[in-house]
Design a protein that fits this description.
alpha/beta; two-stranded parallel ribbon; 10 strands; globular; binds phosphoenolpyruvate
């Protein structure tokens, strides 16, 4: 099956977020993901694993050899200093990461991270030479109140620094109520939100709108990946639970194996 996607200049990205899961023994799954990616199972898509910081250095060799990117899941805004327990963007870079997830809803809610803090950390990622995957998304109550776009719009404007470029920024739209629940928005709702995000990026970061990748995240699995990844302006996926096994993660990434990206 070969299809054309209605996008240009945006290489699809499938990123796994292992969250606080994974010991060294679990790198066997990462190795399988690397082998499958090197064998072309993700097609033209870029594959990135955002592992716990403790596993980054151990995963560098196989990821580099396979062309799989590594990412962290959070960073502090400062490059170093008296911040016990924190990890800086520079440390992630030094450990082999090229990406970092910022503003994930689990950190916004569980660690009280507001938009200004996410923006500061996004700037820290840029300073260290990392690409920031900035997460935005509404809660169930906000969607039901008809506020989803207003919330996502204010998260974008508040969290994304004006100097962001398509090389340094990826947006992940992750409705909070879809994360880890098995629920997903309708394809129409996803299309509307991704279009809204692209328009908002144009307003906030004039001139780069068409090249910034916008991922969908929230209960992506092999059985729904194909329809989700075909939604206009969905440039890939941020995958939580299903990224923990090579079988499920590659079941998602392999959607791109037979898709050609329109030039
Ligand atoms: C996430 O936490 O970023 C995520 C998308 O989780 P899940 O795929 O498990 O819903």
């Amino acid at each position: 099956m070969t299809e054309w996607l209605s996008r240009s200049e945006r290489r699809p990205l499938v990123a796994g977020n292992w969250k606080m899961n994974g010991l060294r023994k679990d790198l066997a799954e990462a190795d399988k993901i690397c082998a499958a990616t090197a064998a072309g199972e993700a097609g033209e898509a870029e594959v990135v694993l955002c592992l716990p910081a403790t596993l980054l250095m151990a995963a560098v060799a196989s990821c580099e050899a396979a062309g799989v990117g590594l990412g962290g899941q959070h960073c502090h805004g400062a490059p170093n200093g008296p911040f016990t327990g924190d990890v800086s963007a520079e440390m992630l870079k030094d450990a082999g990461a090229s990406y970092v997830i910022l503003g994930h809803s689990e950190r916004r809610a569980g660690h009280n991270e507001g938009n200004a803090s996410v923006r500061e950390k996004t700037r820290a990622a840029f300073r260290a030479g990392l690409t920031a995957i900035v997460c935005v998304g509404e809660t169930r109550a906000e969607r039901e109140a008809g506020d989803a776009m207003a919330i996502v719009g204010s998260q974008l404007t508040g969290s994304v620094p004006g100097e962001a470029t398509p090389e340094t920024l990826v947006i992940a739209y992750e409705p909070v109520w879809a994360i880890g629940t098995g629920l997903t928005p309708t394809l129409k709702d996803i299309a509307e939100m991704h279009r809204f995000i692209r328009e908002r990026l144009e307003a906030d970061l004039s001139g780069v709108r068409d090249r910034i990748r916008i991922l969908y995240g929230g209960s992506v699995k092999p059985s729904n990946a194909a329809e989700l990844m075909r939604v206009p302006n969905v440039d890939g996926a941020l995958v939580g639970g299903a990224s923990l096994t090579a079988r499920d993660f590659m079941g998602i990434a392999s959607v791109y194996r037979d898709l050609r990206v329109a030039s």
